[in-house]
Amino acid sequence: MKLEVFENPQQLAELVASEIAARVSSASHNFVLGVATGNTMIPLYQALSKYSPLAISRGFALDEYIGLESDDVGSFAHYVRHSIELPLGIRPGTILVPEVTGDFISAAESFEAEIMKTPIDIQILGVGRNGHIGFNEPGSDAGSKTRVVTLSSDTRIDNGADFEGLAPQRAMTQGIATILAARAIYLVATGANKAQAIGKLLHCEIDDSFPVTQLSNHPDLRVFIDHELQQAI
Ligand code: GLP
Predict the structure, then answer these.
(1) Whose CA is nearest to atom 11 of ligand 1?
(2) Percent of the chain at pLDDT above 70?
(3) The whole model's pTM is what?
């Protein structure tokens, strides 16, 4: 694990974006990018838009809420289209978002199979205040794959701003094992409210009640945080 601390979220975003853009442009193979949603990543995607068009061949989102229309502004499909693909010059549809209509079990299996066919080169990852990654909530199995999950009330409250109150109750998410299969993981966290989760990770002890700690055994984990978060640990 390699930790890098930045003065502020903007400086973090500029440097991580330039690094991702350099890795994409120097790749000798078709580059596959894993993307995270959430407010933390907005400055990063804004900084990455300076490198548009970003030449990725494929991408995967981590998760999607169940029960929303795909054009609902709170859906991750909407986020991926409007905050990632369009500003970064990526052809719409290049980044796959879990399909949450129809048969969930076969949709989850086929999403997982697609990722395993074209492994993710860099997975951009955030963390929830309660230590969740993707939507793998506290107590999630380390061997979990893409599946439907029930969100904790903490997460529904934390992510509620887009939904006039509470976020939906269920979602489909890549599992912890799916996330760990990425070749490199870039974990980005800013602000004091992520201090407990990141503090647990930095102590390197795997704790099922903080899924983010499962990342500590990944061979190529970079952790990017800001000064405010570091001070709060
Ligand atoms: C959601 C997403 C996560 C993201 C987390 C943090 O729950 N499923 O992938 O990391 O939010 O969001 P924020 O960056 O808004 O704090």
Answers:
(1) 38
(2) 100
(3) 0.97
* Ligand 1 pocket mutation pick from 60, 132, 215 by most atoms within 8 angstroms of CB: 132
| Predicted confidence (pLDDT) at residue 173 exceeds the cutoff of 80 | yes
Alpha-carbon distance of 184 to 176, in angstroms, equals 14
Contact status, residue 121 vs residue 30, Cβ threshold 8 Å: no
Summarised one tens digit per residue, pLDDT across range 45-68 is 999 999 999 999 999 999 999 999
DSSP-based three-state secondary structure for 219: coil
| CA pseudo-torsion sign 51, 53, 56, 60 | positive
Going by C-beta distance under 8 Å and a sequence separation of 6 or more, which residues neighbour residue 90?
53, 54, 56, 59, 84
| DSSP letters spanning 134-150 | TTB-TT--TT--SEEEE
Residues 100 and 107 sit within 8 Å (Cβ to Cβ):
yes
